[in-house]
Predict the structure of Dihydropyrimidinase.
Amino acid sequence: MSKKLIRGGIVVTAADTYRADILIDGEKVVAIGAGALFSKETEGAEEINASGCYVFPGGIDPHTHLDMPFGGTTTADDFETGTRAAAFGGTTSIIDFCLTSKGQSIREALDTWHAKAHGKAVIDYGFHLMIAEANDAVLHQLEDVVEEGVTSLKVFMAYKNVFQADDETLFKTLIRAKELGALIQVHAENGDVIDFLIKEALENEQTDPIYHALTRPPMAEGEATGRAIALTALAGSQLYVVHVSCAEAVQRIAEAREKGLNVYGETCPQYLTLDISELARPGFEGAKYVWSPPLREAWHQEVLWSALKNGILQTIGSDQCSFNFKGQKELGRNDFTKIPNGGPLIEDRFSVVYSEGVHKGRISLNQFVDITSTKAAKLFGMFPQKGTIAVGSDADIVLFNPNVTRTISAKTHHMNVDYNPFEGKEVHGEVVSVLARGEFVIRDKKFVGTKGNGRFIKRHKFGASPTLKEEQPHVL
Ligand code: URP
Ligand code: ZN
Ligand code: ZN
Ligand code: ZN
């Protein structure tokens, strides 16, 4: 395997910002220092000029739905197009949600998801496992699931009659997760209340996209978040709330963390930058902005930024779940409940957060790395192999030019979908090159990766803190 030397950039981790060169040997970072200090080791290495660039650890997107059947259709992006777009955007690892259904064997569900990703992904991937029911058979099988490196389990508290699980299922799963060392994730919205509000809306012929948001009020998210936290406390377990969208949910998480509970939260770029008014766009364009939870009134955005800044929320996921406007979102033209939920964000997650967060002074450069990479690696059992730039870590590295602007558009994005929710938005900074385990995937903004090079990440248990198994770090 060849050596590479990334020269002249500014290395940024969750902890530090410093000028240094990075020596890569094969898949790993093997030395960090000033070029002159390790000239012997770098002999024969290919030099990569990073001057003018930040050198970030590759982004980790802890929340994606690729090749997923949902709402009577299947997401527009699969593991090939989705991970390629992710790489263009500076992401080198994803964790995708493996769906299950009642009565299905867990083994079969995981095999299905492995088959979707294997041979297709261009970057590394892990899986979260959805829990549809918590009977003895499922709870027993979870031991093998965790051993296999699938160390996070997802329970939906919404989508009644589709994915929704009851409190007993959530509670039993929390207890089992505590025994096994898994992190429980919840989609926290009160599905029963939402179902009632939806029926009421449809009876009143309120069928436009805006009613998607109006039938899923912030309090329904706050209530479910609080309930999941209470059950976690009762079980003495650990909880990660996905796609937090509103102040009511942030408040519940803040209180829990203040009490010392193992409770964590993720938000997404859309909740930080877009608001409920998008759903009222004419010509059914509002359907492009249908997510669950829905976009909120604009004032929630600063609450979310503040929660990220203050460590109440730890991560940013894209919740990538792309559906074309034509033929897919359009399924709900006469009934908002038939609009497939979700949007395409895997590609722009990293740079929207950089631009709106760092460039606008809301978060620091190091906090940016923490929330887009490091914290996800730590919470989901991948650190320090992933999520940082350190001797012995995987050489998952992004060269990022902060001194240019770019305009987001579906015409130039790489996702396999016909619109972009950030169409026309100007962002500061752009991804120039991306290495995944030491190999270029993106080089000078061009894709040079290989389909199938992405590997399954066997993740550690929640709370386990592995050390680097590679050669002893040698300090220069
Ligand atoms: O609207 C969304 N979030 N779609 C993806 C599925 C989910 O709930 O995460
Ligand atoms: Zn060495
Ligand atoms: Zn969800
Ligand atoms: Zn999701």
